[in-house]
Amino acid sequence: MYCQNCGTEVSGNEKFCSECGAPMSKDSYAGRHVEHRVVVQDRRKEPIIAVVLNLFLFPGLGQLYAGKPKRFLLVWVLFGGSIALLMISIFSNPGAPKFVFIILALVVGYWQVYDGYKCVSQYNTFLREHGRAPTEMDIW
């Protein structure tokens, strides 16, 4: 038997769904479960697309793809800031060591690729658990 509210499978003797707490009725059926999972599968996003967007097109696009515009701005502040510091050190003092800024830019670059992957994975987890896409009001 499946919960009519969230589609979670529950045993026949439970009075309430263990996932969402909705009361179980005698007319709960398997079709609801299948329908719920199909809808969720249609809205699922691929984490590899976030990696490709961040790595090859534009830093932060993976976060935007996952529906996190504020995270996109954070990536640009960090990534743009680290590149700006690197450029300033190169042109202002040619003899100064630049490896610190190069390492900073690489760390921020790798982080934003991983973060884009993680954001899309969190999106998919939220979608699977709640049966709907997360909104700005949801903490995910």
Helices, strands, pairings?
Layout: H1 30-42, H2 47-57, H3 61-65, H4 69-92, H5 99-130
Walk me through this protein's architecture.
With 140 residues, this protein is mainly α. Helices cover 61% and strands 0% of the residues. It contains five helices and no strands. The two termini are 29 Å apart.
What structural keywords apply?
single chain; 140 residues; mainly alpha; 2 domains
Largest sheet: none
Count of individual helical segments: 5
Q: Given the helix and strand composition, which structural class is it?
A: mainly alpha
Q: pLDDT below 50 for ≥5 consecutive residues: which ranges?
A: 29-39
Shape label: rod-shaped
Question: Mind telling me the C-alpha Rg?
Answer: 22 Å
- Tell me the fraction of residues in β-strands, as a range: under 5%
Percent range of helical residues: 55-70%
Count of folded domains: 2
> What is the string of helix and strand elements?
HHHHH
What is the end-to-end distance?
29 Å
- What is the strand tally? 0
Provide the residue-averaged pLDDT.
80
In short, what is this structure?
The chain is mainly α.
